[in-house]
From TrEMBL:
Gene3D superfamilies membership: 3.40.50.2300
Protein name listed in UniProt: Uncharacterized protein
Record-linked InterPro entries: CheY-like_superfamily (IPR011006), Sig_transdc_resp-reg_receiver (IPR001789)
Lineage: Bacteria, Bacillati, Actinomycetota, Actinomycetes, Kitasatosporales
Gene Ontology BP terms: phosphorelay signal transduction system
Length: 133
């Protein structure tokens, strides 16, 4: 197993980014690597980090301003070669269809519920590990 996994967190709200970090802890599950975070508050920062490479999973805030995570997800799925899997944070369970439209691999509702979030993130990290093997 790799030593660390890099998770990009995009939200203009520092409280949302903190909720993600706290829900994840050092690792979201015992069978996945320790997580290191790259935090982004703007769409430009997300694109810059993804262009650098090395991101294992993206967590995008669907309520972010000026560009929501759903639009950001759709853009990176179109523009980034071998785009990492995306976990979308959505406002309401009824928004799940929009997460599907955006091509996110998973979605959880805000505010972040730690057990649900950690489970979804761990599943994407496992999926990424299998694809890399």
């Amino acid at each position: 197993m790799q030593a660390t996994a890099t998770v990009l967190v995009y939200s203009d709200d520092s409280n949302t980014r903190e909720q993600v970090r706290l829900a994840t802890g050092r690792r979201p599950a015992p069978d996945v690597p320790v997580v290191e975070f790259v935090e982004c508050a703007t769409p430009a920062a997300v694109l810059k980090e993804l262009d650098k490479g090395g991101i294992d999973v993206c967590v995008l805030d669907g309520e972010a301003v000026p560009m929501g995570g759903m639009g950001m997800c759709r853009q990176i799925k179109d523009e980034i070669f071998m785009c990492p899997p995306v976990l979308l944070l959505i406002a309401r369970p009824q928004d799940a269809w929009l997460a599907t439209w955006s091509r996110a691999e998973a979605a959880v509702t805000l505010p972040v519920e730690p057990v649900e979030f950690a489970g979804a993130l761990a599943a994407l990290l496992r999926q990424k590990r299998l694809q890399s093997a």
